[in-house]
Amino acid sequence: MSVLENCEPKRVFYYFEEISKIPHGSKNTKEISDYLVSFAKEHQLRYVQDEYGNIVIYKAASAGYEKLPAVILQGHMDMVCEKEAGSNHDFEKDPLRLKIEDGFVTAEGTTLGADDGIAVAYALALLETDSYAHPALEVVITVDEEVGLLGAQNLDASCLSGKYLINLDSDEEGILLTGCAGGVSAISSIPVKYRNASGCLYEVKIHGLQGGHSGMEIGKNRANANILMGRFLYGLKEQLPYELAELEGGQKDNVIPRECSCALLIQPEDTEILKDYACRLTAELRKEYSGSDAGISVSVEFQEETQIGVLHPVSQEKVLFYLMNVPNGVQKMSGNIPGLVETSTNLGAARLEEEVFLCQLWGTEFCQQCKVRRV
Q1: Active site amino acids
Q2: In Å, how far from its chain's centre is CA 200?
Q3: CA dist 315 → 177, 193, 228, 245 (Å)
Q4: What pLDDT digit, counting tens, does each position of 35-75 carry?
Q5: Which residues are in the Peptidase M20 dimerisation domain (predicted)?
Q6: Structural domain of residue 93, as residue ranges?
Q7: Burial category of 201 from C-beta neighbours within 10 Å (exposed 0-12, middle 13-18, buried 19 and up)
Q8: 18 FRET partner, CA 20 to 30 A, in 117, 119, 252, 343?
Q9: Are the beta carbons of 194 and 310 closer than 8 angstroms?
Q10: 148 and 210 housed in the same domain
Q11: Between the CA atoms of 97, 41, 74 and 104, what dihedral angle is there, to the nearest 10 degrees?
């Protein structure tokens, strides 16, 4: 039984549900690209599929509209793949499990992929019908937008003739946006050294955050778990001596991380101090982020008494200095347009490895005036 069969427009949600059955995370788009080819063949529409998997589907103009300039409809077929802690969903092979909750379409334990699956669904619904008069259409669906606009960068634009382009990758229905933004991905690699130490090993986890897309939600004051972990570790120095063994938070540079965990080595007599500090910081953060991340928690769990590799004190200070000082969040608001984030950064992923502390950041800059009107 279809989950979305009663949603309107019916054919749009039909195709959205079909798309959701096909794994289509960034760098895993061959199957959905081939699905779009099959659609074009089934509806006897001319198409181009390039070596990267980008798709262009053409539809002739309606009678009487042949002399009008062609219109390009553009979206992307890949999605950001994020899941809740404890989920066993495999984005490489599992379909999304859709549900309707409080009047909204969402997914069980994972991101939904409406960015930009809804564009693909709208485009296919429009291509299959002759109910609407239109000029010639050129539907462009690119790959790997979420990891740097890779498909768009490699698209051979000579296959397009349209004078107008409507990008179907926006946020709010009924709003047209005119403007552009640029993004840059950066990787920080800080050399670290380890030494062996003995003590009680605890896992500290910061979780319960809302997260979100680093472009669309960066201006909503949502907490970043990696940044909060830096705050936790820096403040903990004033409470007790500890040694950092592991740290990992977030998965993608363009997603505000919802969780971050670390492994700390402490002495047995400091256990209650650690737990008390975690409780106090939880209360502090819930008050600070009551409007965006009221469910924040800092949890502490004993692992074992052990000897383990921990960061050398100099390396530990480097890691803490980075987490406390790396630019994150809104850097500048537009001076012309109220409420518009002009420049922002996001510490999307942070991880201690054998020889380096590796961090991935995403920076966005809105670089052209935006005109917004309701239609």
Answers
A1: 78, 145
A2: 35
A3: 46, 6, 19, 11
A4: 999 999 999 999 999 999 999 999 999 999 999 999 999 99
A5: 208-290
A6: 10-169
A7: buried
A8: 252
A9: yes
A10: no
A11: -20
